[in-house]
Structures are given as structure tokens and as C-alpha cells.
């Protein structure tokens, strides 16, 4: 059998490697799946079912060779908020709808759009999620009793303070043992999952030394069924669908970001290239199917994907094997999971939060003290103190506004003249002075995007240029205008119309492709006239000089152009030396506009 695509060149040796990698990833995924489910406000078995169903489908149908899918820490604040506000049944509906949205994103090839989310926004909400996860495990670490779950950070912290008198020293000891194992195991036994060692050690200590002293999975959620997950019907009424569409959009957005980030990491580690749209379709199908088995929303898991690659995975088969391995463990050993202390789960999630916090990138962006720092901190604080939806929306809006401001500041309009001392026929703004300028012909270099953000500044330039009452010709050098929108086009055309009304001829040089296409569609080129469009500034100068009022040139001593000597009726030697009383041009003369 000849394999192709992500299974290209597959062999028995590759299958053996995938079995090893899949089993190791499965061992890592078991405690994480239960921990993520508990932190999301649902029973631990639902996290295992998600690991099984979504893990198999994402590997089978996705666009990455090494991607491992399942429940992730990034989803915890969102899923917990949905469970608290709408309940578990509606969480399943939100996950189902989120899957449909992901499929549609992939079908309409929107995978590439995820790359346009600004990095400060991504780092900001990721760090905010990490803080939320970490703080949410403090109560379990301390063994606080009678804790009420709250949706918002402030209320949760207040609840912890109020319940501090009920802290359980046994829980702290169990959690500390697990935490120590998480820290030490990677250094001593790098190939052994620290979370598995931590759970086994802390559970054995709790069972043997002080039974019934700490809360366990069994005491809090009951026994985990040692069987296959059964099909779970969904109440897809119109009212429920409309109520859950906004949470579904948030799930789809975060799921797409996390899965494609994980796929990019996998590409870097494995030397492959993923198909982002196929990945979104695979993620979407997994999230459509998983709720029917009681599973929660899933996405690509960066840490498990990295573990998969490091342990020799060759193809998506390792991810499929990881799902079946977890299923086998659930069937054989599920009853023993009931003895796991909840305090053992807390340090695992705290470590997940620490690893996903992007602390180095966060510190670097804050230290830079740019507008990106504002977006980062704002998104982070809103994620922690409000909701992820609010944080992403506000972060994106502020990032766009600041970007528009920066782009508008790039637009400059400088008045220039030919540099007669240069043999290369260049123009320069530095030689423009009060005594070295042409009253009848002005040349302006326009640089930067001419769009709505800079349009008002360009309108101010229009007012300034219109004050030149002796002008006969204006040359606009637009080689460095890479982009023009309809607002910028409207202001450019308004300037041209105003100048033409005053009897001024406007020449445009070096018009680039996009502005030319837009002006063609709007009729702007017809207004300018093909005879006034030039590729080079020298050609435009020749056309402009033929339009001068020769009577005004007589006696003029500005000598702006090489032809001025003949037009003014003096010798070339006299024209080469402007009046010694010439004064430097003001900043406004040289740089007419700088946004």
C-alpha cells in the first residue's frame, strides 16, 4: 500500500515509532484531561472523553502532521464562565456551534486571517488566562472548604480570603509533593511525564498516610465510569442556539488561534508545513462530534504536540494512537482515579499556567514602552478582570486605532527643487529657501499611505498649497505612495479640482499600481488627464516650464531650475549664484506636511 499526504512514506518502522510516541503522549494527556475538565467546572471523565474523541478526530482530519488535540488550559476561563452562566448542557451546544464555525472558517479559507491578530493581543490574553488558571487553583492547593465559584477574578480572590480559616494542611502537603515531583522529575528523568509521577506519589501518600483527610475526585464528582462514553443528545432548539452563538464565537476564535499556533510550533520542531484551512476543518469536525459524547471544546495542545515530536512521532497516527491509549486506560483503570486528591490537580494546572504565561515575551513588550505595550497591558488586565471576549474586542480595536495613528504619521509632503549642484538630476528639500524657490511652479514629494487616517492632514496641505496665488503648475511626485483608499482619493481629487479652478495645472509623476487602479475606477485619472501623467519628474518639469508666464520670469532671481537663466534674461554664470542675502527656508516651506 502506497501512502500519501501526511502519511507519505509510511512504514512498519514508522508505525512502531508512532506507537511509542502515542502511548507517551497518552500518559501525559490523562491527568491533564481530568485537571482541565475539573477546572472548567465539569466532571473529570468529560475531559477524558474529549481527549479520546477529539484527539482521534483532530489527528485523523486535521492539517498538521504532528498536532495533538484535546482539552487545553486556554479554554478554562471561557468554559468555566459558560458553565456558571448557562450550565453544562448549554456548554455542549456552544462547543457544537463553535465546531460549525471552525468548519466554515476552514471552508472559506479564513485560516490565514488568524495571522493578522496582533501579537500584543495574543500575548496579553494568554498571560491573562494563565493568571486566571493559576489563581483558580489556589483554593484546591490550600484545601479550602465550602468554596463558591465566581466568574470574575476579584470575586474569586475575595472568596479565597474569606475561606482562608478553613485551609487544610493535609491538602497543602499533598499539593506540595505533587509540585515537587513536577519540578524535579524533568531534571532527573526527562523522558518521564512529571504530572504522572506527581499524581501517583501524592495519591499514594494521601491514601496510605492520611486517608479521608483530603477531598478526592471520587468524593467530589463520584466514580469515573470504566466504559466507553455513550452518545449524548443535544437540545438544539432555536432559543438555545441564539443564546449560545456568542460563546460559540469566542470558542471558535480561541480554538482557531490556539490550534494554528500549535501547528506552527509543530512545523518548527518537525520541519513540516501545515495546512491551516484543513486544520480548522479538522478542529471543527472534532468539536461538532465531541459534545455528543459529553466532551468539552478542544483545540491543539502545544505542550502535548511538542511531547509527541520529541518522542519520535512520524505521522498523525501517533495522535490517533494517543486517543485509543487513553480509552484503554479509562476502561482498565478508571476506578482507581477516584482516589486522586483534588489537591494533586492544583499544581499541575499551576505549572500549565506558568508555562503558558508568555512571561518573557510579556516583559520584553512592556520594557519596550511602545504603543504595543499599551495594547498588551490593556488586553491582559481586561482578560483578568472582565472576560476574554471583552479583552480581545477592546485589544483589537485599540491596536487598530494605534496602528492607524502610526500609519497616518508616516504621511509627509515635502517641497523640493532640482539640485543643480548634483550631476545626477536629483531633487532635494534641503535647497528650498526663501530666495531659492519658484513662485510659479511647485514640486512636492508625497510619501506614505494616503488613506482615511491621514486624509485630514492632506486636506490641511491642500489649504496651504492653495494660498500660492502666482502658481501656474504643481507637480506631485507619488512614487512613495504605496496605497490610497477612497477617502484619500477624494482629498487628492478635491485638491486637483481646487487648483484647476484657480488655473493651476497639476502634473502627477510615478503613480504606483494600486493608486492608479483606484483613480481609474473613480474617474480621477480622467480628471488629471493622461497628458499630465509622467513616469519621471524631469518630464513633468519640462511640461510645467512650458506653462509658465514668461513675463513674470523676467527679473526673477530665484533660479530654481536650470532653464531659469534663459527665462530670466541673465547669463548662466549669474544664475549659478543666487542672491547672497538668501535666507534658509522655514520648516514649513521644506516640509509642508508631516502628520
TrEMBL record:
GO terms for molecular function: secondary active sulfate transmembrane transporter activity. It is found in: Membrane. InterPro entries: S04_transporter_CS, SLC26A/SulP_dom, SLC26A/SulP_fam, STAS_dom, STAS_dom_sf. Residues 443-544 form the STAS domain. It is a multi-pass membrane protein. One of its GO terms (cellular component) is membrane. Pfam families: STAS (PF01740), Sulfate_transp (PF00916). The chain crosses the membrane at residues 20-40, 46-63, 70-88, 94-114, 121-144, 164-185, 192-210, 244-266, 324-354, 374-404. Keywords: Membrane, Transmembrane, Transmembrane helix. Residues 576-595 are annotated as: Disordered. Its main location: membrane. This is Sodium-independent anion transporter. The lineage of its organism: Bacteria, Bacillati, Bacillota, Bacilli, Bacillales.
